[in-house]
Amino acid sequence: MSVREADDPPLFARIQEQNLLRQYDLLANCVEIGLKKGIEAFDKYMLWSLNAAAVANIAQFGGRFREQPIYVGNHLPPPFKEVPHLIDQFISVVHEIWTIEPHPTVLPAYALWRLNWIHPFIEGNGRTARAACYLLICLRQGMLLPGKKIVPERIRENRRPYYDALQAADRHWAEGQFNVDDLAAYLEKLLVAQLTDAIDEQ
To answer: Is pLDDT above 90 for 143?
Structure first.
């Protein structure tokens, strides 16, 4: 069962918002588990769950890697047959860099960019990437961070800097370089704003 946006835009929007709330609840569980089990809790099963929550009732293949080509603006994601291997590589990099990259937003920026670049799902890739990014931010800080408006919501409010930073990382990658500095700096600003607002709310 799924609702198409073109058939009923208000219902589609309402379901999408409710899905995000459920995804954030699931994300809080993932943070709690990750704090107990360590970075190894960050795996493809967690990604499947976050995606399934994000697209429930608006996409029929939630929580499963795509098995068809997909097009995203000017970005052509890799062939679907490469997705499982690319995700394994991505998770391996996260695990390996976890203990050697102390910066609070570099690894989350990598996750945000790489998941968007791979585009492993039919629908909800951005929502899943932002959730995974925030999970890593919280794990790096050692807690589920306070604040009524968290980093993923702040990204949704003003997407132009987000898209610009993703495209900058894409250009570096196309030139044979890994560089997510723009995205890490962008996330750092949003994180500071979230924590500042949380202090003011007390």
So the answer is: yes
